[in-house]
Amino acid sequence: MKVYKNIKELLTLEGVHKKDGRLLQPDDLGIIENASVVFDENQIIWVGKTVDLPDDYSKITSEDFSGKVVLPEIVDSHTHLVFGGNRANEYSMRLNGADYQEIANAGGGILSTMESTNKASFEELYSLGKKRIETISSYGIRSIEVKSGYSLTYENEKILSEVIHKLKQDFSDKVHIHNTFLAAHAVPKTYSTSSKYLKEVVLPLLHDVKNIIDSVDIFQEEGYFDSNDVEELFSTAQDLNIQRRIHADEFNDNNGAYLATKYNCLSADHLLRTSKSGIKALAGSNTVATILPGTALFLGKPLANARAFLDEGCKVAIASDYNPVLSL
Rounded distance, CA 189 to CA 159, Å? Predict the structure, then answer.
């Protein structure tokens, strides 16, 4: 058991918890000034003002936190941090006016990272992921969602899921890692349709890795995967009792927010183009609306209307979208 004393500000988030993360106000942070917290390795035992610290805890080993702020761990709920290579050249292309699809047509984007990732060994990918997680955790982030999706072949997407699984095991005492299967990230050029790729690679592999992943994700967008693909993947995931996520409404309003609620997704992410009806659907569900401002800035797109999601009563999260471009 240990005590942190004289904390300048302790954020309990008591109101956030009571309100289920919806329609939050500043008071919901539950700030206690000049606070102390008593804890052991399993739980928080007591919180309150230092002057009210019970005598039973006064002789326990303590640490002075004067001038410091203590808050719950930071969560990064959307990352793509297991990959090979980088896409620094795309930033220059972007500055010169190229859009996402033009970069993809020129050999960039997800398919570019696919080539570098497939050249890397398990050990190389693990080492890269390890270094990135160590850097991220040094900022106080203690929970990280990590997606596969930069291989797009059966054999190598399996390796990516296995790399993430090993990282999850090896960092279990330091960082909680949520392993997301995102083989439906893009359609390789060797497949004529998204449906064909889904049936020949994504769905069979989902059965193969079902025991090591925590959720499944899909990039629903024009030129990538359509609503029929989403329905097929999510129906299979439901049958396997695997949780769902979705890259939704990033470039167009594809009704992704609604699909997220229909399949009780953990989150719907990006949401740059979500309609008012989509926002209302999310507000009436337990699906978290995940906003990724770094991605919008890089793409030169208008930011997601976070205020509209908040005011409607959605649960809203902000995440990094750590990826081969935003990690530079």
Answer: 21
Both 17 and 128 in one domain: the answer is no
CB atoms within 10 A of CB 228: 11
Q: Is 215 a domain residue?
A: yes
3-state secondary structure labels for all residues of 201-246: HHHHHHHHHCCCCCEEEEEECCCCECHHHHHHHHHHHHHCCCEEEE
**Is 326 within a domain?**
no
pLDDT score of 117 more than 70: yes
More confidently predicted of 115 and 283: 283
81 shares a domain with 58: no
Helix runs in 216-324, H state only: 227-239, 256-262, 276-283, 293-299, 306-312
Say whether pTM exceeds 0.85. Answer: yes
Q: Do residues 95 and 27 both lie within one domain? A: no
Which domain covers residue 127, as residue numbers?
74-318
How many residues would you count in the chain? Answer: 328
Average pLDDT over residues 211-238: 97
Whether the per-residue pLDDT at 95 is higher than 90: the answer is: no
Tokens for 313?
């009563």
Q: Compute the distance between CA of residue 100 and CA of residue 178 in angstroms, rounded to an integer.
A: 28
Q: Specify the pLDDT at position 318.
A: 97
